[in-house]
């Protein structure tokens, strides 16, 4: 029995046969992730958390209902990453479905406006909207909200980032991470927060008799609030779940049970051929099959292509791709995004190589918190550089690039970034950081800010990722402060990288059937990781594949069976004759023929 069949039987109240029908290996994997009974993999949409516990919904839906009734102009203020782009598309599409006739959007250009609802972005809005609704940002936009209110605009903030000491003086805030908010899951992405707001707004409008149908009975109302059905005449918001799934996976929020419900529902729409034109086109560009798409495909093939626009150019292209219903236009947008992503990969490779050269000796010295700055780096890619360096060094890393340059005294811009040493007082830096388990990056920045007021101009983020800005002249002082904070807060044993696996697979179990169960058993992702196994193998043969990759035949010494395997980005060295490998058991579907394959993530001589 497949995992999908198991879920169907659970949903219908039939005996599940958990022990008899779910592979023992999969039972072990589930147990290690806290899944101990069939109900914990029942990801039907009606099991998502209801919206009522999410704070701020009454004020936000009341204002939105008024805006729809009185035909206000509404502007969605998004963000320039995948979560922000999908959240913007969900907001625009959803509000139009619910009756709003004048809905537009604006996404800040990171090189012009900075992050979030800044005064610069507010001042650029022409014509001025009556109501601004932020998506995936705003909880730190104190100055931007104040500017909008000064100009007579109403503001609703929807966000999921951790709040600072001061909240913006807006009309309503919807954010599960506000202090005292009662929503049980704090892991919603920005797009998930917006989806919940739309569900609550639909319920508000239903109560006001806005839809041209008789009110459904109590069970239908309950189902509609949860988003799993749509009574006749009422907008079906489940049509937005492909966007919700993409933004949730791409933003690397923890896939707790509620997020898994949302992601699984979105994946079902995509697999069923119901994705919006933009997502379908991006899946094509990523050379993935929509019919068997999984969460990792969203994270590695679709999300990066959308993110590239916000990193190198303007996320408006990405949002337009997600908003169009014209298949041909969506493919044109997706092709442009794919080309930008290729440029991003080349730029990232160059910057990572420079960063690795800069940190070549760090393994041999007592560096704990690593801060890097190179005047030629691109501000849109420094987060990816920090991520790569964090993985190699197993240290928290913040990478910086120039964010803006004031004009020279004669009015000419400083164009030569490599000549900025003489002009550091005129340069602002934008940094993006990535952390390791046990070091809360945003809290560390807050500690530095409290101890050295004025050193950091702005900061925000999460435990594992954060962003900040400061003056280039202050970079040496910040680098020292960041290293000191890391030394203070990170226990020495945390600096030793550890790879956690699900243990060995028994002899004879590396089968296509198990690979199929693993593919459908997710969705896997952040805090609910893809199964990773480790075994000792003998290398029965290997050959180079492409540039710097291996194709291997690995023999299991326990039973002599030989297994197809691949490993990427290994350089030119040869594999050891006997090795211990950490690997994923995946499906190779070359030319429509499925076979099991080992995707090696780490090897060492056995």
Largest sheet: 5 strands, parallel
CATH-scheme architecture of the largest domain: Alpha-Beta Complex
Quaternary state of this entry equals single chain
Helix content: 25-40%
Can you count the beta strands?
Answer: 15
Radius of gyration: 25 Å
Number of helices: 19
Please state the structural category. Answer: alpha/beta
What portion of residues belong to β-strands? Answer: 15-25%
Distance between the termini: 36 Å
Any chance you could write out the topology, listing elements then pairs?
Elements: H1 3-11, H2 18-21, H3 24-32, H4 57-69, E1 74-77, H5 82-97, E2 103-106, H6 119-124, E3 131-135, H7 142-150, E4 154-158, E5 172-174, H8 190-207, H9 218-226, H10 241-250, H11 257-271, H12 277-285, H13 295-312, H14 316-323, H15 327-358, E6 370-373, H16 382-393, E7 397-405, E8 427-434, H17 441-451, E9 458-461, E10 465-471, H18 475-489, H19 512-520, E11 533-545, E12 549-555, E13 562-567, E14 578-588, E15 595-605
Parallel strand pairs: 1-2, 1-3, 3-4, 4-5, 6-7, 13-15
Antiparallel strand pairs: 7-8, 8-10, 9-10, 11-12, 11-14, 12-13, 14-15
Helix pairs in contact: 4-8, 5-8, 5-10, 5-14, 8-9, 8-10, 10-11, 10-13, 12-13, 12-15, 13-15, 14-15, 15-16, 17-18
How would you summarize what this structure contains?
By secondary structure, this protein is an alpha/beta fold. The chain contains 19 helices and 15 strands.
Q: How would you describe the overall organization of this protein?
A:
The chain is built from 19 helices and 15 strands. The radius of gyration is 25 Å and the shape is globular. 38% of the residues lie in helices and 17% in strands. It has four domains: 1-42, no CATH class; 51-333, inorganic pyrophosphatase (n-terminal core) (Alpha-Beta Complex), CATH 3.90.1640; 359-495, Diaminopimelate Epimerase, Chain A, domain 1 (Roll), CATH 3.10.310.30; 500-605, OB fold (Dihydrolipoamide Acetyltransferase, E2P). Mean pLDDT is 88; it is low at 1-16, 214-230 and 405-425. It has helices at residues 3-11, 18-21, 24-32, 57-69, 82-97, 119-124, 142-150, 190-207, 218-226, 241-250, 257-271, 277-285, 295-312, 316-323, 327-358, 382-393, 441-451, 475-489, 512-520; strands at residues 74-77, 103-106, 131-135, 154-158, 172-174, 370-373, 397-405, 427-434, 458-461, 465-471, 533-545, 549-555, 562-567, 578-588, 595-605. It is of the alpha/beta class and 606 residues long.
């Amino acid at each position: 029995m497949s995992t999908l069949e198991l879920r169907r039987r659970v949903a219908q109240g039939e005996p599940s046969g958990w022990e008899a029908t779910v592979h023992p290996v999969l039972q072990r994997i589930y147990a290690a992730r806290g899944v101990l009974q069939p109900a914990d993999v029942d990801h039907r949409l009606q099991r998502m958390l209801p919206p009522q516990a999410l704070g701020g919904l009454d004020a936000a839906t009341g204002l939105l209902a008024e805006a729809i009734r009185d035909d206000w102009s509404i502007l969605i203020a998004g963000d320039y990453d995948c979560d922000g782009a999908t959240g913007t598309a969900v907001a625009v599409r959803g509000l139009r479905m619910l009756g709003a006739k004048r809905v537009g959007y604006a996404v800040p250009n990171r090189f012009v406006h900075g992050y979030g609802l800044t005064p610069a972005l507010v001042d650029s809005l022409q014509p001025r909207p009556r109501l601004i609704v932020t998506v995936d940002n705003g909880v730190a936009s104190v100055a931007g909200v104040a500017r909008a209110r000064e100009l007579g605009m109403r503001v609703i903030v929807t966000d999921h980032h951790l709040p600072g000491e001061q909240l913006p003086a807006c009309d309503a805030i919807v954010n599960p991470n506000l202090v005292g908010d009662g929503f049980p899951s704090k892991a919603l992405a920005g797009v998930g927060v917006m989806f919940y707001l739309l569900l609550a707004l639909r319920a508000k409008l239903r109560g006001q008799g806005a839809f041209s149908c008789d009110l459904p009975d109590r069970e239908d109302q309950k189902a509609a609030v949860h988003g799993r059905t749509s009574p006749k005449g009422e907008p079906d918001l489940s049509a937005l779940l492909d966007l919700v799934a993409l933004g949730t996976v791409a933003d690397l929020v923890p896939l707790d049970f509620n997020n898994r419900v949302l992601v699984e529902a979105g994946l079902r729409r995509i697999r069923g051929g119901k994705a919006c034109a933009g997502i379908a086109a991006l899946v094509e560009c990523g050379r993935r099959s929509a019919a068997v798409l999984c969460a990792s495909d969203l994270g590695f093939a679709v999300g990066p292509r959308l993110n590239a626009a916000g990193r190198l150019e303007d996320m408006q292209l990405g949002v337009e791709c997600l908003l169009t219903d014209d298949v041909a236009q969506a493919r044109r947008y997706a092709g442009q995004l794919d080309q930008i992503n290729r440029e991003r990969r080349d730029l990232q490779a160059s910057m990572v190589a420079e960063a690795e050269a800069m940190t070549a000796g760090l393994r041999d010295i007592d560096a704990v918190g690593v801060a890097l700055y190179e005047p030629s780096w691109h501000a849109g890619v420094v987060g990816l550089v920090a991520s790569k360096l964090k993985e190699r060094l197993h240290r928290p890393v913040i990478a910086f690039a120039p964010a803006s340059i004031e004009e020279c005294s004669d009015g000419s811009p400083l164009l030569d970034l490599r000549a900025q040493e003489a002009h550091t007082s005129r340069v602002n830096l934008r940094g993006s950081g990535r952390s390791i388990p046990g070091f809360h990056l945003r809290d560390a920045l807050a500690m530095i800010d409290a101890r050295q007021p004025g050193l950091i101009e702005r900061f925000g983020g999460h435990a594992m990722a954060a962003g900040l800005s400061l003056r280039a002249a202050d970079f040496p002082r910040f680098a020292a402060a960041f290293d000191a904070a890391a030394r203070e807060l990170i226990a020495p044993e945390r600096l030793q990288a550890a790879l956690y696996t699900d243990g060995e697979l028994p002899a004879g179990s590396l089968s296509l059937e198990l690979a199929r169960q693993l593919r459908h058993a997710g969705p896997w992702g952040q805090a609910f990781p893809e199964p990773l196994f480790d075994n000792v193998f003998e290398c029965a043969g290997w050959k180079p594949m492409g540039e710097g990759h291996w194709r291997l035949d690995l023999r299991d010494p326990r039973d002599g069976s030989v297994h197809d395997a691949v490993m990427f980005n290994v350089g030119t060295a040869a594999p050891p004759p006997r090795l211990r490998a950490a690997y994923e058991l995946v499906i190779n579907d070359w030319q429509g023929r499925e076979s099991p394959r080992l995707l090696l993530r780490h090897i060492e001589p056995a």
